[in-house]
């Protein structure tokens, strides 16, 4: 795992003495690949994954897809945003982390800077990669019994119009053979062909071996566990029961909200509240973390799964979904795409611009006493296309409404690069020379903000109302 173009796949090529990177479009990994190498008469299976979210999703399904993470950091680049994301996902997954610093032969490599950046992420570097992997494997007693029916995890799957469903499996126990009857999640199959990571057709595959298989009735979901059965009728019955369970789970999907967590705290079912924090400055991040860490109520702890600067991203939503976290935004605003993604994932985003409001809210949640609160009801957003300056009225923003609608006399957030730079009110809303009460989506309009003239092109003007809402 690691930041884009930090040499993850190239490192794997070097270990395998292969040319995988040359086959990738633009040198970027487009799919999940799994490869096995032999060193000191022991086998190590590497999984090369392009998406940190996919890694954590597999863990959230209860599938122990990996035991150790190799975090690749480019020496000339250092710890980058996706490096930190990889660390967050690995920590949530609860696996051992080995740091491999790559590209050390390039100019401008500052080893001390990289060590400090890693130390800030609670990580230290280890040099001898393969030996270290074997040592950790031995210490963790990573063993499996090959003399039983196979079980493991679906790494990747897709449908091919010529041969049907093609699936990559990681065998984690037992031995998988051709003609075995398998169930992955709610999908049944019978193994017709096994292909190893070098493209060779084989008849069986043992523990920790990645294989491509043909024979599933449909493509199972990546991250699902699979198991072998000795009876076709039993396998089909299990698949049908799981299909029913999946349907019921979707219907009864519970939203991850502070209100729900408060109820769990009150009933004694929860001892830790997980939080993902996004803020406008590093100073804000540090101040909030310090303030929240002082909360100590009834042995309930608040844990920051991620705390960093910048706007709320889809990666935050995925991480929140898999770790059961509430997302807090401090002086940042999610756009409509992020809001919709959070809503679809059942993840709550809570937004504040006063630190004590966050600590007060979390302390009440820890006590199981969260009360009704006030919430911004977002009406819509407009993007500033051009600005005009007039001495009598100040700055007029020529805008286009990009979602929802803009309401005259409503409150507004002025957002620049996902960060709220001003809170105020709309003082004027016009289309050409006509006054408007509402400007709908795709409408061009002129907007003036009360007591604020520092508008720039590409700023977002977010129209909202403040409403009292009950805790969800």
From TrEMBL:
<dbReference type="InterPro" id="IPR000795">
    <property type="entry name" value="T_Tr_GTP-bd_dom"/>
</dbReference>
<dbReference type="InterPro" id="IPR000178">
    <property type="entry name" value="TF_IF2_bacterial-like"/>
</dbReference>
<dbReference type="GO" id="GO:0003743">
    <property type="term" value="F:translation initiation factor activity"/>
</dbReference>
<protein>
    <recommendedName>
        <fullName>Translation initiation factor IF-2, chloroplastic</fullName>
    </recommendedName>
</protein>
<keyword id="KW-0547">Nucleotide-binding</keyword>
<comment type="similarity">
    <text>Belongs to the TRAFAC class translation factor GTPase superfamily. Classic translation factor GTPase family. IF-2 subfamily.</text>
</comment>
<dbReference type="GO" id="GO:0005525">
    <property type="term" value="F:GTP binding"/>
</dbReference>
<keyword id="KW-0396">Initiation factor</keyword>
<keyword id="KW-0648">Protein biosynthesis</keyword>
<dbReference type="InterPro" id="IPR053905">
    <property type="entry name" value="EF-G-like_DII"/>
</dbReference>
<dbReference type="InterPro" id="IPR044145">
    <property type="entry name" value="IF2_II"/>
</dbReference>
<dbReference type="Pfam" id="PF11987">
    <property type="entry name" value="IF-2"/>
</dbReference>
<dbReference type="InterPro" id="IPR023115">
    <property type="entry name" value="TIF_IF2_dom3"/>
</dbReference>
<dbReference type="InterPro" id="IPR015760">
    <property type="entry name" value="TIF_IF2"/>
</dbReference>
<feature type="domain" description="Tr-type G">
    <location>
        <begin position="1"/>
        <end position="221"/>
    </location>
</feature>
<dbReference type="InterPro" id="IPR036925">
    <property type="entry name" value="TIF_IF2_dom3_sf"/>
</dbReference>
<dbReference type="Pfam" id="PF00009">
    <property type="entry name" value="GTP_EFTU"/>
</dbReference>
<dbReference type="GO" id="GO:0005829">
    <property type="term" value="C:cytosol"/>
</dbReference>
<keyword id="KW-0342">GTP-binding</keyword>
<dbReference type="InterPro" id="IPR009000">
    <property type="entry name" value="Transl_B-barrel_sf"/>
</dbReference>
<dbReference type="InterPro" id="IPR027417">
    <property type="entry name" value="P-loop_NTPase"/>
</dbReference>
<dbReference type="Pfam" id="PF22042">
    <property type="entry name" value="EF-G_D2"/>
</dbReference>
<dbReference type="InterPro" id="IPR005225">
    <property type="entry name" value="Small_GTP-bd"/>
</dbReference>
<dbReference type="GO" id="GO:0003924">
    <property type="term" value="F:GTPase activity"/>
</dbReference>
<comment type="function">
    <text>One of the essential components for the initiation of protein synthesis. Protects formylmethionyl-tRNA from spontaneous hydrolysis and promotes its binding to the 30S ribosomal subunits. Also involved in the hydrolysis of GTP during the formation of the 70S ribosomal complex.</text>
</comment>
């Amino acid at each position: 795992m690691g930041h884009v173009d930090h040499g993850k796949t190239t490192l794997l090529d070097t270990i395998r003495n292969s040319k995988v990177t040359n086959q990738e479009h633009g040198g970027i990994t487009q799919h999940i690949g799994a490869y096995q190498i032999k060193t000191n008469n022991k086998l190590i299976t590497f999984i090369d994954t392009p998406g940190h979210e996919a890694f954590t999703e597999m863990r959230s399904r209860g599938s122990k897809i990996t035991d150790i993470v190799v975090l690749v950091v480019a020496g000339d680049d250092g710890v980058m945003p996706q490096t930190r994301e990889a660390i967050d996902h690995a920590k949530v997954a609860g696996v051992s982390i080995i740091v491999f610093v790559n590209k050390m032969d390039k100019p401008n490599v500052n080893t001390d800077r990289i060590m400090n950046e890693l130390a800030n992420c609670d990580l230290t570097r280890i040099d001898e990669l393969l030996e270290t992997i074997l040592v950790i494997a031995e210490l963790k007693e990573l063993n499996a019994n090959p003399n039983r029916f196979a079980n493991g995890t679906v790494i990747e799957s897709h449908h091919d119009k010529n041969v049907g469903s093609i699936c990559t499996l990681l065998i984690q126990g037992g031995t998988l053979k051709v003609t075995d009857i398998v169930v992955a999640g709610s999908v049944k199959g019978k193994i017709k062909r096994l292909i190893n990571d070098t493209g060779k057709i084989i008849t069986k595959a043992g523990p920790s071996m990645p294989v491509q298989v043909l024979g599933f009735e449909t493509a199972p979901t990546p991250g699902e566990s699979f198991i072998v059965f000795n009876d076709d009728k039993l396998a089909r019955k299990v698949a049908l029961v799981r299909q029913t369970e999946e349907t019921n789970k979707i219907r009864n999907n519970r939203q991850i909200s502070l209100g729900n967590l408060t109820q769990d705290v009150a009933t004694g079912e929860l001892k830790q509240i997980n939080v993902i924090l996004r803020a406008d400055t590093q100073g804000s991040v540090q101040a909030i973390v310090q303030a929240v860490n002082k909360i100590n109520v009834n042995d309930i702890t608040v844990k920051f799964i991620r705390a960093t600067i910048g706007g709320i991203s889809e990666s935050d939503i995925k991480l929140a979904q898999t770790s059961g976290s509430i997302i807090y935004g401090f002086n940042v605003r999610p756009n409509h795409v992020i809001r919709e993604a959070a809503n679809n994932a059942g993840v709550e985003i809570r937004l504040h611009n006063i630190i004590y409001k966050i600590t007060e809210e979390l302390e009440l949640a820890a006590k199981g006493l969260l009360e009704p609160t006030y919430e911004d009801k977002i009406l819509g957003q407009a993007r500033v296309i051009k600005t005009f300056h007039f001495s009598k009225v100040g700055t007029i923003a020529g805008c286009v409404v990009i979602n929802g609608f803009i309401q005259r006399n409503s409150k507004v957030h002025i957002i620049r690069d996902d960060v709220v730079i001003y809170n105020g009110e709309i003082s004027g809303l016009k289309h050409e020379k006509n006054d408007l009460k509402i400007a709908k989506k795709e409408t061009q309009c002129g907007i003036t903000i009360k007591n604020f003239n520092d508008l720039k092109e590409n700023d977002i003007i977010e129209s909202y109302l403040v409403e009292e809402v009950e805790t969800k």
